[in-house]
Amino acid sequence: MEFTAKKLTSYALAALVIIVTGLAVLAIWDVIQLEDVMRKIMTSLLVIFASSVVTLFIFNVVIKDN
Fold it and tell me: Concatenated DSSP letters for 2-56?
């Protein structure tokens, strides 16, 4: 397997997406109030979904192995 700058950049972007996603989820769940639990759950799922779509795009388009 050839390790190129394209793959290195792709892995760095994927790691950055995962880190930002973790920070976003931690910011969403900073203070849990009983009234806002459903909104926070849905917002967390939306953030996780968006980051997984970006990560999937990176791995399927940029890091495509032949």
Answer: ---HHHHHHHHHHHHHHHHHHHHHHHHTSS--GGGHHHHHHHHHHHHHHHHHHHH
The token pair that represents 1 in the structure block: 């397997």
State pLDDT tens for residues 24-51. 777 777 654 545 666 777 888 898 899 8
Q: Which two tokens stand for residue 26?
A: 């931690």
Give yes or no for a contact between 19 and 60, defined as CB atoms under 8 angstroms apart: no
pTM of the predicted model as reported, rounded to 2 decimal places: 0.58
Q: Which residue has the tokens 């790691």?
A: 15
Tokens of 25: 């989820």
